[in-house]
Write a structure and sequence with these properties.
Chain lengths: 117, 107
Amino acid sequence: QVQLQESGPGLVKPSETLSLSCSVSGASISTYYWNWIRQPPGRGLEWIGYIFHTGSTSYNPSLKSRLTISVDTTKNQFFLNLRSVSAADTAVYYCARSWELSPLDYWGQGALVTVSS
Amino acid sequence: DIQMTQSPSSLSASVGDRVTITCRASQRISGYLNWYQQKPGQAPTLLIYVASSLQRGVPSRFSGSKSGTDFTLTISSLQPEDFATYYCQQSYNTPYSFGQGTKLEIK
């Protein structure tokens, strides 16, 4: 059974860096693409980006200048860092698995991150 | 970037009704269109992938189809547990993109 679990601070100050991790169990992170998606309160879904175990990434151009996604294959985890956050970055952040041309088939439960002073 | 236009944004229906939700891609995406269901406070779950393939464990009352760049999700006979928000998503090209969502409510 593939499971993903997000973790990280629930509150981040404006202009600081939002950092989340996603722990994967039931599947090797050395296969598949590992994605981040977010959902502002009451709104729709936005794809943030993904990473492959080699470190190869694809980012949403709307966030690319502030974004780093990384992976630690020894811990079966991957990570999101979003710099210089503002209130507009307040959202539930999900991690999810996919493959080339394939859907997001397994999702974490989501982590609410609020940007506020 | 590929834009996904989903309609309607909301829909009221009754148990037993047949409902249809549509998603249009701004350019060719072949069949790489997926549908998700999201209930309040929960992560989305995959219903349909590659336009018309039913994800394992999803009831057969859900179906998907494709016509050019138009995609349709059909629920043949609504059940109480189907009242939720539905999203389409293209996985043809990055940045992956979602439709705006359709909130299906009880009439």
